Amino acid sequence: MRSRSVILDTVTRATFQAIWVFSLYLLFAGHNAPGGGFVGGLVGGAALVLRYACHGSDGATAGVRVRPEGALGAGLLLAGGTGAASWLAGAAFLTSAKVEVTVPVLGTVKTTSALPFDIGVYLVVVGLVLAILSSLGGQESTA
Amino acid sequence: MFLALLGLHAILAAVAPLAARRMGRAVLLLCALAPAATVVAAVVAAAGGAAGQPVRESFGWAPAIGLTVDLRLDGFALLMVALVSGIGVLVFGYAAAYFPQRHDIGRFAGYLTAFAGSMLGLVLADNLLLLYVFWEGTSVTSYLLIGFDDRKGSARAAALHAILVTSAGGLAMLAGFVVLGQVAGTYSLSGLLADPPSGPAVSAGLLLALAGAVTKSAQVPFHMWLPAAMAAPTPVSAYLHSATMVKAGVYLIARLAPAFALVPFWRPVVVTIGVATMIFGGLRALRQDDLKLLLAFGTVSQLGFLVAVLGAGTPQATLAGAALLLAHGLFKASLFMVTGVIDRQTGTRDLRLLSGLGRRMPALAVVGVVAAASMAGLPPLVGFVAKEAVFEAYLHGGMGPVGPLALAGLVVGSILTVAYSARFVRGAFATQAHPSQRCVGSQAPLPSRAFQAPAALLALASLVAGLLPMLIGPLVSSAGSALDPNVEVESLSLWHGLTPALGLSALVVALGAVLVLAGGRVAAVQQRFGGWSGADDAYVATLRGLNRTADRVTGFAQNGSLPVYLSVILLTVVTLSGTALLSGGMFPSPAFAELVLAESLLHLVTCLAVILTAFATLVAGRRLVAVLCLGGVGYGVAVLFVLQGAPDLALTQLLIETLAIVVFVLVLRHLPEEFEPHRWRFGQKTRWLVAGSVGLFVFIFALVASAARTAAPISEGFLARALPEGGGRNIVNVILVDFRGFDTFGEITVLATAALGIIGLVRAVRAGPGTPPQAEGGS
Q1: What is the mean pLDDT of residues A120-127?
Q2: What is the ipTM, given to two decimal places?
């Protein structure tokens, strides 16, 4: 391993979690404010890239228990499942529905069936970044 | 009800591998529930008058393209269901006794159930497209079943042969169905047959559909896949040869024949193919030493018989064909099961090595003799009743000049059938006069009763149906009148009196007996003509030719040079779209007068920066610098998005650019630092030319496209609908996940596929050259 940059190391450590929180915020706020599953996933991916730049591929995926294949599969399944759920209601594939739930602390939460679909998109994008980093990034020894 | 039955097949097929972990072989009996329930349902439907008044069920699948799940049970479908599911139950029971305890029995049970379900759907389908779906369902499941012993190269090759031949025919058939459906204006099978269209297009469509039937039912010259398919486990062969798969082609011909028999080519072509197949299959069967192979060629022969009779299209022939269909299902399944028992108990199917089995297993011998006698058409078995009816039909005439010739061919084929039936019985059960040391049979372990029961039941059915034809009379005549309303419902009978048909039967048996007695000489004559394997050679030669052509095309189109690929793609875009652009009269457009160079200074500055960085990319000598400059172009465009008020786009663009640079860097580690100058096939000047023309084209295209709008932009409608319908205020996101959700779904599928591709490629590279990628797979 080459010498590390202390500044980059510290900044990464300080911001890693914050970036993920921002990424989740983008995901959930995306329907009404700028953001969405795609952008949110990319921001999360950027956090991984930052850690990769700092620690190399093992560091980037350390503590990430999700395998890229798992994230990809779960994302596709969730998005496809959301679409297929419309069939249960007798509607066409991916027909959207709105839900209003009253949650004790948060009050009335409005959401749509597009949210799980967007989470699926998010998972696929994160899975893609994980796949790139762990496979393309992980061959320093053979390079 | 039928939908539920098809669903039951599907569910049992899916759970069989799981259930087998606990149940072992008994999973086959669990799966037998599906055909058993179908038999019960068919009996209930028949009691409710399904034969006279067809029962229908419908479910919209993709109505826009005329694809609806229309199921229809009429008299002929009832006969087919009785065969498919009735014999199906026995095959499942037989398989449970046939297989030793093995770990992949669940997989087998799943395939077999799916196979049975596909065939059931095929005979119930009343929509041409749906029929095609089930048709290919039987092709795929039979592929899995024939190649079930996937460690054996011969089994894999046989499975491949079967699916290549039958699905090639199936595709032709699909094209034919589309032609017929479009001309008739309906994809409903019953609708098409009730009001048959005519004309040259219809003839072409029929020929294509016939190609599907002929390949599926193993007619000459596409017959070789069927003998090869005996690589399948014997229970599969018993099912595939008697009630399913090969009967699909016969089924289709039987459905089409009454309506289209008067199309000029139909009767000569179909009957000729059928008769030729019958004689050819019979000759080949006489030469086989492997009992199963003998039966397989016997099936080829009998399928030719069925095609010749059911394809003739006269009411009498149709009725006789229905009886023959039933008779063949009963005796052929029984004979294969008997062969399976012999194979299991003695370890061989070679009739030169079997001796004394008749004395050792008398019960099995009786079953085999009865079934073979039915195949030979001896009284008092159902095979005799059916064959009499066929001769009657052909003697009745109404087929024009084809009739007498075909009848002569059928008589010759029947003589051969008698001879190879006798060969089967003698080879399997007789005691050889001078048995060699290697002969087995007299000491073989006795089979269990459960193992012999299915074959015995079928043989018993052949006998009872022959002695008391009035039992199967209603089933057969309702099948006949479902195919052709002109069929006169007459009762089948064992004894017609001294008719010409009886004379023909006697002639057939007598000449068959002569052929049996002259067995050695016949074999010698056949030997002299050598092993005519033209069809096999043709298959291999076709495959080789295809491979060679594919090699050449690939070598030409995929030469491995990235610059060439890119240039071809880009120049195609420029030439085709550029020509359209210039000749379309939209350039120059009067709207160009309203164009503004830049709305603000910031626009101008950003654009200049983008252009400069793009240029820097081109002249950069080091790869890393070029990549960074390329990223700069992307960031510049992101700034433009911000200026235009599209934060979502800008954010995405920024992140993508960043990620792209990282990926580039990861890959660039493996490449030399600097570009290698002038080692490409394409000169520097050509590159500039291509790049310049693309740039110019895109510029003009953007100008024309933005000036050419005449309709209201779609985004206005989206803006209005985003909140009330999509429930979101971020219109970009609402478009992505709601209005255009299906597109997004497609895109993330592409993303995921690309990611998996990267993982697989990198693993394959790491495993080292020459290592097949699947060696690393499984995770």
Answers
A1: 93
A2: 0.86
CA dist A67 and A61 (Å) reads 9
Smallest CA–CA separation between A32 and chain B, in Å? 4
CATH class of B570-710: mainly alpha
pLDDT, averaged in runs of 10, over chain B (779 residues): 91 92 89 94 86 82 78 92 94 92 89 96 93 95 92 91 93 95 91 90 94 92 88 92 91 94 90 94 89 94 95 90 94 95 90 87 94 92 92 85 89 94 91 78 84 94 91 88 82 75 90 84 66 72 92 87 86 90 74 78 92 90 90 94 87 90 85 70 78 90 79 78 76 81 90 91 75 41
What is each CA distance from B436 to B353, B354, B441, B446, in whole angstroms? 8, 10, 12, 22
For chain A, say whether B742 makes contact (Cβ under 8 Å).
Answer: yes
- Residue A143: predicted pLDDT: 35
Domain ranges of chain A: 6-136
Indicate the residue of A39, A83, A133 with minimum beta-carbon distance to B648.
A39
pLDDT on residue B680:
54
* CB distance B68 to B133 below 8 Å: no
In chain B, domain spans = 2-517, 570-710, 720-779
Residue of B nearest to A39 (CA): B652
Can you give the length of chain A in residues? 143
8 Å CB contact between B331 and B383: yes
Interchain proximity B734–A136, CB inside 8 Å: no
Q: What is the pLDDT of residue B773?
A: 44
- B670: contact with A, CB 8 A cutoff: yes
> Can you state the angle between helices B519-529 and B500-517, rounded to 10 degrees?
80
8 Å CB contact of B734 and A31: yes
The rounded distance, in Å, linking the Cα atoms of B464 and B380 is 9
**Distance, CA of B501 to CA of B392 (rounded, Å):** 6
**Which chain A residues contact residue B752 at CB under 8 A?**
72-73, 75-76, 124, 127-128
Identify the three-state secondary structure at position B290. Answer: strand
pLDDT of residue B530: 56
Contact B776/A at CB under 8 A: no
Residue of B659, B730, B754 lying closest to A30 (CB–CB): B730
Q: Output the pTM of the full model.
A: 0.74
Q: What is the DSSP letter of B221?
A: T
Q: Strands of B534-612 (E only): list them.
A: none
For A6-50, how does the pLDDT look when each residue is reduced to its tens digit (9 = 90+)?
888 888 888 999 999 999 999 988 888 888 888 999 999 988 888
For residue A63, the model assigns a pLDDT of 64
How close is the nearest chain B Cα to the Cα of A120, in Å?
A: 9
On chain A, the residues whose CB falls within 8 A of the CB of B655 are: 39, 42-43, 45-46
- Chain B: give the shortest CA distance to residue A12, in Å: 16
In this complex, which of A52, A53, A80 lies closest to B745 when CB atoms are compared?
A: A80
A64 Cα to chain B: minimum distance (Å): 17
Q: Which residue of B has its CA nearest to A138?
A: B666
The closest CB to that of A49, out of B647, B659, B751, belongs to B659
| Mean pLDDT, rounded, for A72-95 | 83
CB–CB of B304/B277 below 8 Å? yes
A45 contacts B655? CB cut-off 8 A: yes
Q: Which of B664, B733, B753 to mutate to test the interface with A (most CBs of A within 10 A)?
A: B733
Measured distance CA(B77)–CA(B54) in Å, rounded: 9
Dmax (CA) of chain B: 109
Confidence at A61, pLDDT banded by 50, 70, 90: low
